[in-house]
Amino acid sequence: MDIEIKGLVKKYDGETIFNGINIYIKKGLITVISGASGIGKTTVLNILSGIDSEFEGLVCGVDKSRVAYVFQEPRLLDHLTVSENIRFVLDKKMNGREIDDVISKVLESVELKKQKDFYPAQLSGGMKQRVSIARAFAYPGDLILMDEPFSGIDEKLKRQMMDDIKKLQRKQGKTIVFVTHNMAEADYLGDEHYIIEGKPSEIIKIK
Ligand SMILES: Nc1ncnc2c1ncn2[C@@H]1O[C@H](COP(=O)(O)OP(=O)(O)OP(=O)(O)O)[C@@H](O)[C@H]1O
């Protein structure tokens, strides 16, 4: 099902961030939302995921129990290994053999199979973020929200990670909403691309 945000009005402490914007997110595609720092990108993701319910307008087509999030920082559990960090979000959602299979496939896609028994402290920043991307794709959901996941990652690795995301997304057909301030990332990754600008913010579809 496609996702639609209709007539979104969002205020923080009386300050209007959005004054009636509309966003259409097509199922099974990567939609990028770009814009300057502080413009309201994370706010849109929080509204989509249901973290933020204080707004006016409509959000249609999101099953909140089936949303995975990749944040700016990896947010792994330090006392669990790479595969345990992924297993943790899959427990009770699938059976044991299925879980092993899913973990092995996603770790292969992000080239971290050899590190499956490492703890986060034994990984580089980029590797940790690849684990959190793998975890989001392993999660049995329809929608993945990504909030500037490449902060502090060099250009070469970033390109590889964008290719991994595209590959996994094409294979699984999940819907991705990806937020960034970086136009090159937006251009490379997005099937569809919205830009947020102005105050209160307008949203413009450029692709
Ligand atoms: N909980 C909050 N209370 C008050 N103001 C907030 C709150 N969260 C965000 N804001 C304000 O709303 C605006 C939009 O914030 P948001 O985090 O959505 O922007 P962003 O585009 O994701 O920025 P960045 O790229 O820096 O993460 C900012 O001016 C911010 O200061």
Let me know the number of strands: 9
The share of residues in extended strands comes to 25-35%
Number of separate helices = 6
Question: What is the CATH C level class of the largest domain, in words?
Answer: Alpha Beta
Count of discrete structural domains: 2
The proportion of residues forming helix, as a percent range, comes to: 25-40%
**Name of the CATH superfamily of the largest domain:** P-loop containing nucleotide triphosphate hydrolases
CATH domain fold name of the largest domain = Rossmann fold
CA(first)-CA(last) distance:
20 Å
Structural class: alpha/beta
Strand order of the largest sheet: 5-6-7-3-8-9
Which word captures the global form?
globular
Bound molecule types: adenosine-5'-triphosphate
Mean pLDDT: 95
Largest sheet entry: 6 strands, mixed
Poorly predicted spans: none
Rg value: 17 Å
CATH architecture of the largest domain: 3-Layer(aba) Sandwich
What is the oligomer described by this structure? single chain
Elements, N to C (H/E): EEEHEEHHHEHEHEE
